[in-house]
Amino acid sequence: MSKNVQLRVKRTLDVVISLLLLILTVPVVAIAALLVRIQLGAPVFFVQERSGRWQRPFRILKLRTMTDERDHDGNLLPDGIRCRGVGRVLRKLSIDELPQLVNVIRGDLSLVGPRPLLRRYDPWYTERERRRFDIRPGITGLAQINGRNLTPWDERLALDARYVEEWSLWLDVRILAATVGKVCRASGVVLDSSAELLDLDKERQLAWTSS
C-alpha cells in the first residue's frame, strides 16, 4: 500500500473513530462540563491557538481544568495549585482531552501525531524537529507513550521527528494501543510540568545564547 493511500486510510479512520467516540462519550463530556461549570466556573472549555500542519494556526479545544487564581501581583498561580478538584480528576482520566475529537473531525488534528505546541515555540525548532509540521498533529503520539510531559524537550521532539520519518498505519495502531493502556493506568499524568521543565522557548533561548 502506497504512503498516499495509507494517509487517506488514516484520515478516514480518524473521522470514523472520532465520530463513534464522540457519540459514546457525550454523557461523560456533558457531566464533566457540568462539574467544571459548578466548581471552576465559566468558561467550561479551554481554547488555545496552536501550530498545526504546515505551521497553520488552529484553536485546540479541551475541557477546562484550572481556575484563574492569581497572586498579589496579578500573575497566575502555578498550574499545580490552580488544577484541583474536578480538574485533577479530568486530567488523571484524560477526559479533558475528549473535546479534541471535534478538532480531529474538522481536520485540525489526527488521532495520532506530534502533539501541537504553542505558537510562540515555532522559531525554536531545529531543522529536523520542523518535520513535525509535515503531518497533522495528534491527540496522542510517540512522545506521549514514552514519558508524556516530563520527557526532556530534545528527546520529546526527537520522538516527534522519528514518528514522521517512520510513520505507518501499523505504528499508529501500536501508539493507540499503548495510549489506551496509559490512560487506563493514569500513567505519566503531570499536573504542573512547568515545575519540572522550562518552556521550550525559554530553554532554547538559554541554551543557544550560552553556546
TrEMBL record:
The chain crosses the membrane at residues 12-36. GO terms for molecular function: phosphotransferase activity, for other substituted phosphate groups. Keywords: Membrane, Transferase, Transmembrane, Transmembrane helix. The keyword Transferase applies. Residues 10-184 form the Bacterial sugar transferase domain. Belongs to the bacterial sugar transferase family. This is Sugar transferase. It comes from Micromonospora radicis. The lineage of its organism: Bacteria, Bacillati, Actinomycetota, Actinomycetes, Micromonosporales.
